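Reminder: ligand-aware prediction takes two inputs, not one.
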Amino acid sequence: MNFAIVGAGFSGAVLAYELANAGHYIHIFESRGHIGGNCHSERDKNTNIMIHKYGPHIFHTDNKEVWDYVNQFANFMPYINRVKTISKGKVFSLPINLHTINQFFDKCLNPNEAKKLIESIADESIKDPSSFEEQALKFIGKDLYESFFKGYTIKQWGVEPKELPASILKRLPVRFNYDDNYFNHKYQGIPKDGYTPIIESLLNHKNIKLNLNTQFSSDQKDDFHHVFFTGPIDAWFNYEYGRLGYRTLDFKREEHDGDYQGCAVMNYGDQDIPYTRISEHKHFSPWEYHDKTVIFKEYSRYCEDEDIPYYPIRLVNEKAMLMTYIERAKEQSKVSFLGRLGTYRYLDMDVTILEALESSRQIISFISSNETLPTFFVEPI
Ligand code: UDP
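Here is what comes back for the chain with uridine-5'-diphosphate:
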């Protein structure tokens, strides 16, 4: 069959690879001038340091199938993400662990003592946290919350943490040992040559035709047996019911000699520092040596019409608008919506890949039994 896939990020590329291997013909339409979506990586022109153009991407997963899958296409180097944060002129270890607790309270507690301390400051009255703020107060208490999460989150999301879902904070663990691995996942690494070659390998197939700098319009739908749309779901409908809210990021680049901050990611918890974090990209490739260094200060703001969408906001208003788009999408024929933008969800790379893999299996089985392909393989709400 002839399929159009809109978007050459992980969702589109995995789908293209799997469907091409099953004998189908794939036309990819990518509006940007490069592949990889927001995972795109490239070498910095001045310093030759590998840059994650749209912000740091560390691959981490618990899913062996996904880990084995990506390892077919790249040489993943062992990498543990260790993030630090600055609050009121002092540096602390993240995610909150025994070192952070001892640093913050100027103590020398063992795990049990630290647990007791945190229990004594945590807000016990919150039984079932319904917001980011309640989740934080219940698990770490007011002082740690205000130093590390409140200011950062207001900068990152542009709203008060009491308006945000608890799920955002649930991404981060609290530990009563000295483990400062930012992620809890079993497998973690960074591809030696960046993410772009992975996408290149996925798309390097005789049945796949890649069109860069090419917008796809829903009017072209009938040229194909089916369209898999990984762009923003509201864009498919020309934003007829409004624009779904996203946060976008601005990166301010600086070049320095030597080592700027001694680690890959330094967060800034104070609200009066305008950026959320500074990434120093050469530390994501510790197997390389560079005299120079390049850093990016990261500023988050509301995503306007011409900006690149990063984080779906998904508050009450956006969810209502999303429902309208979902209903309209289900009335369409011959189009399915996938991925971070197609389903308007905050997805890590591993989840994106797993969903694309599972979707392609379903597609192949639906086609073999002559069934209509679904609008969504994963419900967006
Ligand atoms: N967060 C925070 N302070 C930090 C790090 C994270 O308040 O130093 C909050 C913030 O709201 C963020 C969320 O925790 O959006 C999830 O953090 P994560 O590091 O997973 O964000 P990502 O890397 O996806 O931007």
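Residues 2-41+65-75+193-241+314-368 form a domain with the Rossmann fold fold (CATH 3.40.50.720). The pocket of uridine-5'-diphosphate is lined by residues 85, 94, 148-149, 152-153, 156, 168-169, 171-172, 267, 269 (CB under 6 Å). We will return to this case in the review session.
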